[in-house]
Amino acid sequence: MLVKIEWAEAIARKYPEHVVFVISCDSSGRPNIMPAGWCIIASGKPPMLATAISRANYTHELIRETGEFVIAFPNEEMGEMISRRAYAQAKT
Question: Which of 38, 43, 58, 62 counts the highest number of beta carbons within 10 A?
Fold first, then answer.
């Protein structure tokens, strides 16, 4: 049975959602950390994750340049760092 709910309740049910860090480095080894709110399990065998990164994003540029990146799963204590990185990423 479908039940219509108010938008505020839908959002309250959605959050908190998991955030991952997509970590890449420039050619000199300087790290770049991009918080990503969308990451799915793409395969169990072999183990693969999928996320989306805009082609206009600096993180995308670094991954194309080096061919390497890491997806990291921050813990709850890292919440403030996630917020700071998301704000910094949005400004660049």
Answer: 62
d(CA 2, CA 47) in angstroms, rounded, equals: 35
pTM: 0.70
d(CA 54, CA 33): 14
Report helix, strand or coil for 35. Answer: strand
Q: Closest Cα to residue 76, out of 19, 30, 38, 1? A: 19
Strand partners, 20: 36
Dist. CA 69–CA 71, nearest whole Å: 7
In CATH, what is the architecture of 21-91?
Answer: Roll (2.30)
